[in-house]
Amino acid sequence: MSSRRPSRIVLLGAPGAGKGTVALGMVSLFGAPHLSSGDMLRAAVAAGNELGERVKGHMAAGQFVPDALILEVIRERVQHRDCRNDAGGVRYLLDGFPRTLVQAEAFAVDSKLAPQLVVHLKVNSDVIVGRLTGRRTCPNCGASFHVAFAPPAKTDACDHCGSGLIVRPDDHEDTIRRRLTAYELQTAPLIDYYADLLIEIDGGQGRDQVLADVIASLKPWDGETPVGANL
Ligand code: AMP
């Protein structure tokens, strides 16, 4: 693993492992934007655009969207200005991508895009099913709540924008099981693939402790210039 501070980080973990929550906590620390592939695809579905039409069936069924499609979306997104540092290098905090070896390899062959650090949030599947079946999401601002662990102040209303909360269509138990199977078969092999870049975190703890562990594991890079600053 590099001794310089990473500026391209991938968060790896099953659905419900807490990648989005950890990403929000890391953004201010790293400055790189949080890119959630799931949020991007849900925005396309909500907008009813061509991409949304192409992905909504896969998503509702708990299946991955085609590699070529998501690669196009992420490649385009990392061209945006917020993913550039002053010297023109790429920076990101990726959540939900890559999810297959094909996706990982497509980024690995490009030294300007390849991740420099992979944070793996380990959580067992019973905990995940409990988290996802209780999850309530704001369709307007994307905020996430949990009926037991992080309830909104007002039942079924978003604390941030007041919109009515929903159960994501893919957060029903049979779809969750399909998503977990897809994770085991197609995404879990990335843990070995990224062995040299990997930091393992116990994602089964409460959200504050998970974030504290992630931040502690990144301490060795405090004060270092981000890798890629001069790319
Ligand atoms: P998430 O919010 O990350 O759980 O993603 C929701 C859904 O979007 C997934 O169940 C997939 O259908 C789709 N999706 C998100 N990211 C990817 C990806 N990298 N590859 C394939 N499908 C994806």
Number of helical regions: 9
According to CATH, the fold-level topology of the domain at 8-123 and 187-218 is Rossmann fold
Which regions are unreliable across 5 or more consecutive residues at pLDDT < 50? 227-231
The CATH H-level homologous superfamily of the domain at 8-123 and 187-218: P-loop containing nucleotide triphosphate hydrolases
N-to-C terminal Cα separation, in Å?
18 Å
The count of β-strands is: 7
- CATH architecture of the domain at 8-123 and 187-218, please? 3-Layer(aba) Sandwich
* Secondary structure category: alpha/beta
- Helical content stands at 40-55%
Write the layout of secondary structure elements.
Layout: E1 8-12, H1 19-30, E2 34-36, H2 37-47, H3 50-60, H4 67-77, E3 92-95, H5 101-108, E4 117-122, H6 125-133, E5 135-137, E6 144-146, H7 173-187, H8 189-193, E7 198-202, H9 207-217
Parallel strand pairs: 1-3, 1-4, 2-3, 4-7
Antiparallel strand pairs: 5-6
This protein binds adenosine monophosphate.
Task: Explain the overall architecture.
- The structure is a single chain.
- This protein is an alpha/beta fold and 231 residues long.
- The chain has a domain of 148 residues: P-loop containing nucleotide triphosphate hydrolases (Rossmann fold, 3-Layer(aba) Sandwich).
- It is 40% helix and 13% strand.
- It is built from nine helices and seven strands.
- The strands form two sheets. The chain has a five-stranded parallel beta sheet with strand order 2-3-1-4-7.
- A hairpin with a 6-residue loop joins strand 5 and strand 6.
- Helix 1 crosses helix 9 and helix 6 packs across helix 7.
- The radius of gyration is 17 Å and the shape is globular.
- 31% of the residues are buried.
- The structure holds adenosine monophosphate.
- Adenosine monophosphate (AMP) binds next to helix 2 and helix 3.
